[in-house]
Amino acid sequence: MRILKPSRIILYILLVLFAILTVLPLWSCVVTALKTSKEVIFTTPITPPLRPTLVPLMESLDYLKRPLMNSLVLVGSGVMVSCFFGSILGYVFSKRRFRGSMVLFILVILCLYIPPQVQLIPTVRVASNLGLHGNLGSLVLLYMLFGIPMCAFIFKTLYDDEIPDSFINAAKVDGAGTWTIYRRIILPLSVIPFVVAALLQVTIIWNDFIWGLVLTTGKVNLPVTVAMANLKGSFVAKWNLQMAGALWITLPTLIIFIFLGKYIIRGYSGM
Amino acid sequence: MDPKKKEKIITLLIILPALVSIFFFYYCFTGWNFLISLTDWKGFIPSYNLVGFKNYVTLFHDPIFWTSLKNNLLLILLFVPGVILIGLILAVLIDQKVRGANVFRTIYLLPFALSFVVTAALWTWMYSPRVGTINVLLGKLGLGFLKSGWITDPTIVMYCIIIALIWQFFGYSGIIFLAGIRSIPESQIAAAKVDGASSFTLYRRIVFPQLKASFVTAFIIFMCFALKAFDFIWVLNRGGPGYSSHILGVTMYKETFALDKFAYGAAYSTIILVLSLVIVVPFLYRLYRR
Predict the structure, then answer these.
(1) What is the pTM of this model?
(2) In CATH, what number does A54-269 get?
(3) What is the rounded CA–CA span in Å between residue A140 and residue A144?
(4) B210 touching A, CB under 8 A?
(5) How confident is the model at residue A271 (pLDDT cuts 50, 70, 90)?
């Protein structure tokens, strides 16, 4: 669908304009993170630093070091568990339907739309009863559960599209049971679904804020987003420090999006 | 035992652990939250009494509730259509066989990778009245008269928040619609061209009517993000100045965890849940009715 030649110039101008608007806050963040406090005040927020400095990056890394490790732990444990259970649910809902399985599937999908505020209070109560309130353990457990509905949804749609039912039926004829089919046929064909679901969970858990805010206390337990919010609150006028901190948090997800963005798009589309 | 029956039992057994735990977390906690909202439970004091719907009555007489509800609806009504409209325009633009379409697409998607916490930090800096990017740039461009207090001005703070959220999601919205446009068979478009349809007619008559699925997808996703805007607003300015950018999630958090009024906070959560279900359930019903 090509539109007339002269208007193509306007087209590119518009696209570039959108791109500039998109990049402007990010650019401002990067250049500010590389400036000294003095330079932040005496230069405009978009001019590149005259004498780039790594001090704000180092200082904020010092503040965020432990939280970055914490978030890494959360991502690692949460992603593996929720992907595993998600793939089993996806397999059953896609290839092993039984009476009522559709209703169960819809109930799983509905979980995606329950706002987190609803579970905050009961979760805090349960976590404190288990003696986990305030430390990282509560979040580890939470993120294992939390991502399962989303993963189940992704695995079901991808299994529906990519693995023909005839494979399963052939295996059934050969006498393979539910579990054998999962292990021998489904799992080996699940590389892409696992990548899609895992990347999505990585970004969701890494970027999540409200659960860390409510469930963890004390500097050693914080996930990186909560630590960043604290950094923002305690160094109000130190813009270079704040931007440097934002940069550290963004780096992993940004890299994922730039190089593996197409998988993420697949996971979200059709939701 | 009959092997068919055995397989059925195994199937149930392998999904049971996951199903039980997520239904417990999502549905039992939702019910529990509703029960809490019917009590006078405060903080971590274990004793409480049932008080019926007293919390809801208090809530409906609370001006802060109405402010939050109003802001929440404003957010949904401006953010969701805004991000869909801009996404649609962007998708049509990228669809014109532009060079470097992939580069543009990656750039537009970048803000979507950010945490709300990071977006909030970036936009606090953008909106900062004295040294922030927007006011400084306006000054340099000779548009100093447009300078404003932005998020420190209670009359426009909600609009500032909505603009920042649209910034974060419009690229993603564009990609949803681009995927929708690309899935329309080439033959239909070729046929319309043979019939002499102009680009404008082509989009209006052939393309847009077939994007219904993309519209629904986008609507429901952005609706959910609008309900999750708590993270962004809390880090940006804690719902300030004053109560001017409180949404229901912010008020709920403050009532519960700052003022220790757990039961009252639970009543807020129930309202948030009802608000999102009213929108989502009809959608799911239509999607899975067959």
Answers:
(1) 0.87
(2) 1.10.3720.10
(3) 6
(4) no
(5) very low
